[in-house]
Amino acid sequence: MLRKILNIVVLVPLGIVLVVLCVANRQQVTLGFNPFDPSDTVLAISGPFFVFLFLAVILGLVIGAFAVWFSQGKYRKRSRIEAKEALKWHTEAEKRRLQQEAIVSAQAANPVADRPAFQGSTPTMIAAQQK
Questions:
Q1: Is pLDDT of 121 > 60?
Q2: To the nearest 10°, the Cα dihedral for 103, 107, 112, 115?
Q3: Of 60, 87, 109, 112, whose CA is between 20 and 30 Å from 37?
Q4: Beta partners for residue 48, in sequence order
């Protein structure tokens, strides 16, 4: 629900502004790529002005996205390394848990009363072992 409201509040005015911008800048312009001879038609493109505006905005967004992606590379690398390490420790903990369960089940199969008490054990220590 909040997302729908946000879309209406942001996207509708943005769409209106873009339509007004397109209508106000629909005259034909020539974009020349030859800085030494501006009248050269070989290296020139003609089109509505708003098309060039939109292309400039899109190109800026793409260049900015690549710049952010490259600048955050070290954080993605550290995240991959830490994820591998976390997986390694998780599997090690699981292995230790299974070992502990095997030991507990083996001890449950062999009651404490069957095991001899340590030399020098007190009766309370023997009773604690039997629990």
A1: no
A2: -80
A3: 60
A4: 28
Model confidence at 79, in pLDDT bands (50, 70, 90)? very high
Long-range CB pairs of 24-33, under 8 A, 24+ apart, other chains included = 25/49, 25/50, 25/53, 26/50
